[in-house]
Structure formats: C-alpha cells, structure tokens
Amino acid sequence: MKTTENASVKDAAVYFFTLLVVLVLLNLLMGGIHRPVLQYFRGEAVDFGTYWQEARLSTRLLLAFIIALLFALNRYRKAKKGLAKDQNTGTKPAD
User: Fold this and answer.
1) In this structure, what is the dihedral angle of CA atoms 40, 44, 46, 24, given to the nearest 10 degrees?
2) I want to staple 44 with a disulfide (CB 3.0 to 4.6 A). Which of 16, 39, 80, 93 is the partner?
3) pLDDT given at position 89
4) Mean pLDDT across the stretch 27-34?
5) pTM, two decimal places
6) Which of 87, 94, 30 lies closest to 61 in space, CA to CA?
7) Residue 10 to residues 62, 71, 77, 92, Cα–Cα distance (Å)
8) Which of 13, 91, 26, 86 is nearest to 61 (CA)?
C-alpha cells in the first residue's frame, strides 16, 4: 500500500509542476514579456525595472504558484481519500 501512496504523491507533484509551468508561461505571454525580449534582439536598451512595475509580473507569478499548489494538494487529497476508501472496503485501488 505504501507504493500506491508514493505514486499519488508523485502524481500530485508532477501535476503541480506541469500546472505551474503552464500558468507561468501563460502569465509571461499575457504580461508582454515579448517587449523586453524584442528590445534586446533589436539592440535597444532593455529596462526590466519598468516592465516589472507595469506588468506586476511578480504578483501574477506568485498567484500562479499558489493556484498550482492548491490544485495539486486537492488532487493529492482526493487520491489519499480514495486510498482510504479502498482500505476500508478491502478492495484494491484501480490502476
């Protein structure tokens, strides 16, 4: 039973990091990360200070981290609850 619980932890961790990467990329694209990148490739002076203030990117990245963490914890809780039900009924969890 320990290996099944470890699998649910790994599943929640993979889910967390996948969701976090998707949310971060979405925030970067919607926040206009392309502006400083384009300035860099054009050879212009890149001012990241005003970019971070304008886009408030750090706040949105923190929010993305919190959302991904909550979803992953919810997924782990549901998986653990499913394991507890299987222990009570004596049946094996479905793969």
Assistant:
1) -30
2) 39
3) 58
4) 67
5) 0.50
6) 30
7) 23, 14, 13, 19
8) 26
